UniProtKB/TrEMBL annotation:
Keywords: Nucleus
InterPro entries reported for this sequence: FHA_dom, Fhl1/FHA1, SMAD_FHA_dom_sf
Species of provenance: Arabis nemorensis
Protein known as: FHA domain-containing protein
GO biological processes: regulation of ribosomal protein gene transcription by RNA polymerase II
Lineage: Eukaryota, Viridiplantae, Streptophyta, Embryophyta, Tracheophyta
Stored PROSITE patterns: FHA_DOMAIN (PS50006)
Length: 274
């Protein structure tokens, strides 16, 4: 959501004569045609004749926890002077990387404060812009339930049990990251920065998109009340999902509103003021 004097976005493209704020986690760059449009029409910005309709995609790679560039146009893209062509691996983007598509040059910029929380360290200064570095990685997760039973172990059992618990914890962490990624993508598609979605609606969309895809244990943990036998979870099938999102304030903002005895929860992606 934009105000009259403040632009918000997850990242920014800055050229000599244009600026574009990324308000979703994925944008397409290229040129508009009668049949289709792109997020950033470089041909209208003086990019020349060598720009494909879908020339490149900039997106947030949740698996690697960074922004990346996927090259689609046959003439390729320059990133920091290096040519990347279609079919090449995606290109990691750091703040203030210089990109060139066709005849158009522009910088990829991240806010001084990272999307994933914490200050962003200095990298280099270009055209008077504030220095900024790559995204800060995810914080380490806390140990889950059952990782410390407090019981003494017989010799020979301890190492095997610790290994099993470490494996279980790693699986749970991977599952959490996947659920967080799914939720972030849904919110990015349906809400702009600063817009709120009721948890009940988010649960409904996640249930519709992933209820038949996720393992039944994951569905039970995040989309039902089965593992939450507490008064606060009564009537809220999304309670497990809500508890997960509260662990990631670097991604999500939770807002609660009371209506009589009823408490309503709303969620929004962390938006960045530029």
């Amino acid at each position: 959501m934009e105000t009259a004097d403040v632009e918000v976005g997850f990242a920014k493209l800055q050229g000599e004569d244009f600026e574009y704020y990324m308000q979703t986690y994925s944008i397409m760059l290229g040129r508009n045609s009668k049949k289709s449009t792109v997020d950033v029409d470089l041909s209208s910005l003086g990019g020349g004749m060598n720009i494909s309709r879908n020339h490149a995609r900039i997106f947030y790679d949740f698996t690697r926890r960074r922004f990346a560039l996927e090259v689609l146009g046959k003439n390729g893209c320059l990133v920091e002077g290096v040519l990347h062509l279609p079919g090449n691996p995606t290109v990691k983007l750091d703040s203030q990387d210089l990109l060139q598509i066709g005849d158009k040059e522009f910088y990829f910029l991240l806010p001084v404060r990272s999307l994933l929380g914490g200050p962003v360290g200095p990298r280099h200064v270009v055209s008077g812009h504030t220095s900024a570095g790559p995204l800060v990685p995810y914080h380490q997760y806390h140990s889950g339930p059952g990782s410390g039973s407090g019981k003494k172990e017989r010799k020979g059992e301890g190492i095997g049990r610790v290994d099993r618990e470490a494996d279980d914890q790693q699986v749970l962490q991977l599952e959490e990251k996947d659920v967080v990624s799914s939720v972030a993508n849904v919110l990015s598609d349906l809400c702009g920065p600063g817009e709120w979605m009721p948890m009940e609606k988010l649960h409904s969309v996640i249930q519709e998109n992933y209820g038949n895809v996720w393992h039944h244990s994951r569905v039970r943990r995040y989309l039902t009340m089965e593992e939450w036998a507490i008064p606060e979870a009564k009537g809220k099938a999304w309670y497990g999902l809500l508890m997960l999102l509260t662990k990631y304030p670097e991604h999500f903002v939770i807002n609660t509103r009371s209506k009589g005895r009823l408490t309503l929860e709303f969620v929004s992606l962390v938006s960045l003021l530029s």
